[in-house]
Design a protein that fits this description.
This protein has about 290 residues and is α+β, with helices and mostly antiparallel strands. The chain is built from six helices and eleven strands. The chain has a six-stranded mixed beta sheet, with no helix packed on it. Strands 4-10-9-6-7 form a five-stranded mixed beta sheet. Helix 3 packs antiparallel against helix 4. It is elongated, with a radius of gyration of 28 Å. The chain starts with a helix and ends with a helix.
Length: about 290
Amino acid sequence: MSSLDRTSSSRGGRAKVLAIAGAGALLLTGCSEQVQRGWLPNAERDITNHTGSIQDLWVNSWIVVLLVGLLTWGLIIWCIVAYRRRKNDTGYPRQLSYNLPIEIFYTAVPLMLILTFFAFSDSTERAINTPVDSELVVDVRAKQWAWDFNYSYQGQEKYFAGTQAHLTGEEGVEETLPTLYLPVGKSVTFELNSRDVIHSFWVPAFLQKLDMIPGKTNHIYLTPQVEGTYQGKCAELCGEYHSEMLFNVEVVSEQEFLAHLDTLNDGHIGEEYDRKPGEVARNEIHGEGE
């Protein structure tokens, strides 16, 4: 055996070992909890009453897409190998103008997939967006670059007025962020409003995000089910300090929640603190200057 053959054989052996190792690693990582939830940011499946259904829709959709992708690539590679031009071939292979069974198959299968994806997506979205008579209503008002929280719970009206956090890289800054408190196991309606420009309310662990548009109130309905501290942020580029428009969410027991409400001021702070109450939305629509 020549040195060239030995080198080729050695490279081929290493390639096989790497391929087997890669496949094994992929199978092993597929068993991890992170992979099973599709790398979504919810550490647990049922952080809210909606995270489980959102996770299922996400993961199952990817499974179907990957299977379709593997089938498609497999057929492409098979066609390349099976119908490749041989050494002694001359001219063109027999040409087919159409193949009715294949064309029906390639039309029917994608259509069925699209309709199935639509049905599951629509049912999940309807379940998430159906209004509920919540025990707690939180009027969240975004502003450059902080958050105000108005609480309505069991006849009480309380508010928290947030101030902008300044990220310095030092420890302890996160503790100064505006903090939204929620009682575990209680249904919540978030009324999302903006005081100035378009913002977006996002708690990654809750797997829900919604824009906050001046002059328009959007709603999120959910029930937090796992106590803990979760990070929130504005997910819409809203100006110079967008990166510092952060907040924390504390999901606590009802007793702790009531104790927190006792520390807040009475009443609500509404649109009287907006930059231009009732005017910002019209300016953005018609392109008028301030």
